[in-house]
Specification:
The structure is a single chain. This protein is of the alpha/beta class. Helices cover about 35% and strands about 30% of the residues. It is built from twelve helices and 13 strands. The strands form three sheets. The protein has a six-stranded mixed β-sheet with strand order 5-6-7-3-8-9, sandwiched between helices.
Length: about 300
């Protein structure tokens, strides 16, 4: 199946600074892809090239097999960028109606309001009176106005409160169920872990890992076996188990760090220790990112 988006050896240079360095990847229809990395890693620059808002210095970007600047491509995509700019004098409802009028088959006004959670009072507000979070929600509505096949979200939940953030990601899941393809950049590693079916990790303009959150975390050197002691345990006894590198206690649970969870579990059962509620944690995406960066810098 031909990919919806394809980048081939793409680089972008700004005033002799390499912002994106020979990046290649493809996106298939229906994927939810998180482009992850710290500020300055090249995430936003890469997204801007996919949107046709920046021209690559080298390499090629294709969306639906075409140049992303073509009109036929732009009719099929929607974008929520970091800066949301609209006509300040218009009310929220007027802005949404205006953007819907640009498309031949837009989403209904009612559907856009439901997706973004705007109240009747908020719909009557003028754009210049909106809070930062409300502007992000309005930007989300405008990105979806044309019922696009592909959605690009650049740091979408910055400025949103907890309720708005939850509504946003619930909506993204619903859009996925409708067959939409979704790419989002974020520096919130937990969002990428929870929402992304695939994560592309950027560091200093390069891709350092590409895969599912589970597969990236599975490559971690350090994993965790945690459990609740039925009564007080000698921490040193846990530390003495082969392959345990450290032990700590948090909220009544003991956490044993290890590079071999199978061996640690076998040792715990063999010793018949008074423990319960055993869990294995493959680590966090944040841990995986830190290890990948450290490994790269040591090369």
């Amino acid at each position: 199946m031909e990919p919806i988006i394809e980048l081939n050896e793409v680089s972008k240079v700004f005033k002799n600074k390499m912002a994106v360095d020979q990046v290649s990847f493809s996106i298939q229809k229906g994927e939810i892809v998180a482009i992850l990395g710290p500020n300055g890693a090249g995430k936003t620059t890469t997204m801007m090239m996919m949107l046709g808002l920046l021209e690559p210095t080298k390499g090629s970007v294709r969306v639906f097999g075409k140049d992303p600047k073509e009109k036929s491509v732009r009719e099929k995509i929607g974008a929520l960028l970091q800066e949301v700019s609209v006509i300040d004098a218009l009310k929220v409802r007027e802005v949404i109606h205006l953007f819907r009028s640009y498309y031949p088959q837009p989403l209904s006004f009612e559907e856009l309001v439901a997706f973004t959670g705007f109240t009747k009072d908020e719909l009557q507000k003028r754009a210049n009176k909106l809070s930062g979070g409300q502007k992000r929600r309005l930007g989300f509505a405008l990105a979806m106005a044309g019922s696009p096949d592909v959605l690009f979200f650049d740091e979408p939940t910055v400025g949103m409160d907890v309720t708005s953030r939850k509504l946003f990601w619930n909506t993204v899941t619903e859009l996925k169920d409708r067959g939409k393809t979704i790419l989002f950049t974020t520096h919130y590693l937990q969002e990428a872990d929870d929402i992304g079916e695939r994560v592309i990790l950027f560091h200093e303009g390069k891709i350092i890992s590409d895969g599912t959150p589970k597969s990236i975390k599975a490559r971690l050197l350090t994993q965790v076996v945690s459990f609740t002691p039925i009564h007080t345990l000698n921490m040193q006894e846990i530390r003495n188990i082969p392959h345990v590198t450290d032990v700590y206690e948090k909220d009544g649970r003991l956490y044993a760090l290890t590079d071999n969870t199978d061996m640690v579990l076998a040792a715990l059962f063999k010793r018949n220790l008074p423990i319960q509620n055993i869990e294995i944690e493959r680590g966090r995406l944040e841990d995986a990112f830190e290890q990948l960066v450290e490994k790269r810098e040591a090369m």
